[in-house]
Amino acid sequence: xxxxxxxxxxxxxxxxxxxxxxxxxxxxxxxxxxxxxxxxxxxxxxxxxxxxxxxxxxxxxxxxxxxxxxxxxxxxxxxxxxxxxxxxxxxxxxxxxxxxxxxxxxxxxxxxxxxxxxxxxxxxxxxxxxxxxxxxxxxxxxxxxxxxxxxxxxxxxxxxxxxxxxxxxxxxxxxxxxxxxxxxxxxxxxxxxxxxxxxxxxxxxxxxxxxxxxxxxxxxxx
Length: 222
Prior knowledge:
- The protein is α/β, with parallel strands linked by helices.
- Helices cover 43% and strands 17% of the residues.
- It has one domain: Rossmann fold (3-Layer(aba) Sandwich).
- The model has no long low-confidence stretch (mean pLDDT 94).
């Protein structure tokens, strides 16, 4: 499976979700690589730290790419069962080319109005990519927005519901499971870890497990 994590907005937790997706897929015992297509190299640095400090944990290889990433990803697909791509927060060649080769697109977003507005153009990019994929007889890219850094407050659910309606009106699907803003996600990534490694916050473990299962399972609900 090739999973692209990307959006046009920075600071929405793309690298955190990409790292957790890579580890969760590596836990299936299939060779997994995390490709960092973000100039900031956050995911690559995390994966390198994981190799040094957590040699007994689920193995995640790493590589950096820029520009049109399709040739590089096609080459990796011969050796890896799972590829997770972390793209930077911009409309880039890497993001557009990634949409042409990935099976899944995870689009992290906050529920703030300014963040949601950036999804309009992302929706257009997904539509254009799927038109090109259809023309070349490829299966469509399955894109899902996941609301990240939400608050664990009952009155915040109305904001999530309103944000979901806004995003769905743009033609994008939305994960029914949001991700709460928990310090354990940040703390667990020290030295290449995740909430799936060691004794971290069980609520975060269960939450991320639920989110990723819904986003990555082969059969997706309508």
